[in-house]
Amino acid sequence: MPNRMRHFTLALALVALLSLAAGCGVKSPGSGSDRGTAQALVDESTRLLQESLDKDEEGRLRSLIARAKGILLIPAVGDVSFFFSLGSGNALVTARTDEGWTGPVFMSKTTVGWGLQAGVSKQSGLLLVMDEEDLRYILKKGGVLRGQARVVALSVDQEYNETPEFQESGDVYFVGARTGLYAGVALSGGGFSNRLGLNEAFTGVEGGSPETILFDRKLKPHGAERLLDILAEAEASGAAQNKKDGTEVPSN
Q1: Which of 114, 132, 144, 230 lies 20 to 30 Å from 95, alpha-carbon distance?
Q2: What is the 3-state secondary structure (H, E, C) of the chain?
Q3: What is the pLDDT of residue 141?
């Protein structure tokens, strides 16, 4: 498999993460519109995933999905990012468990973030999390990376701040959408919240706990069947490819 990956090391502001941790779970009053909002986000994220896979001619994304413990799907409409935007945005999270892909659960971004950017005009795409501990950190603390952690973006031409101090368990792969696997990633230092109201409306789990939905009950809610089926098919294809090649996507 061609290796056109470069490494990004991002040192996130721990103070910012800690200051936001107390508010990283938000449950709005229930309304009849929550289910519709959740379904619309699932449908848009499903389209995003399918479009990304359609562009995956070399199978690199499928190979990553076969290894990932979780994925943040960050949809966009036109050139406007839902997630990495000024003021607000939405994304959803799925997890790969011993019973297959579960979820999704919903997240939002409520503050202006900061990060590294390399020639990216649109910041929608997929964040593939390789370690379950990191995925749980995202859900609990509202930050994408723990302290110093490495982000690998596909098809990048430059390296920034690469050091040997990154956490091995901090690997997150960024795959851009709609323009193929393009260079660049921008990650916020915090401000992410669990949308507990949407979680409850979509899954029926009282309180909308993302850990309960993804890991304890391992739910596959009605309305997410196509999304989860696409992930399962991509995982199977990627696993077969990895076995055939006798290689794995490099972790360092």
Answers
A1: 114
A2: CCCCEEEEEEECCHHHHHHHHCCCEECCCCCCHHHHHHHHHHHHHHHHHHHHHHCCCCCHHHHHHHHCCEEEEECEECCEECCCCCCCCEEEEEEEECCEEEEEEEEEECCCCCCCCCCCCCCCEEEEECCHHHHHHHHHHCCCCCCEEEEEEECCCCCECCCCCCEEEEEEEEEECCCCCCCCCCCCCCCEEEEHHHHHHHHCCCCCCHHHHHHHCCCCCCCCHHHHHHHHHHHHHHHHHHHHHCCCCCCC
A3: 77
CA dihedral 170, 65, 82, 209 (to 10 degrees): -70
134: its two tokens? 């990191």
Region of poorest pLDDT, from 63-72, 101-110, 172-181, 204-213: 172-181
Q: What length is written for the chain?
A: 252
End-to-end CA distance of the chain: 16
Highest-scoring range by mean pLDDT, 74-88, 136-150, 199-213? 199-213
Residue with tokens 């993460």: 17
In angstroms, the Cα distances linking 181 to 61, 111, 130, 176, 243 are: 9, 27, 18, 5, 23
pLDDT the model gives residue 151: 55
pLDDT at 181 over 50: no
The count of other CB atoms within 10 Å of the CB of residue 187 is 22
Q: What is the predicted pLDDT for the residue at 60?
A: 86
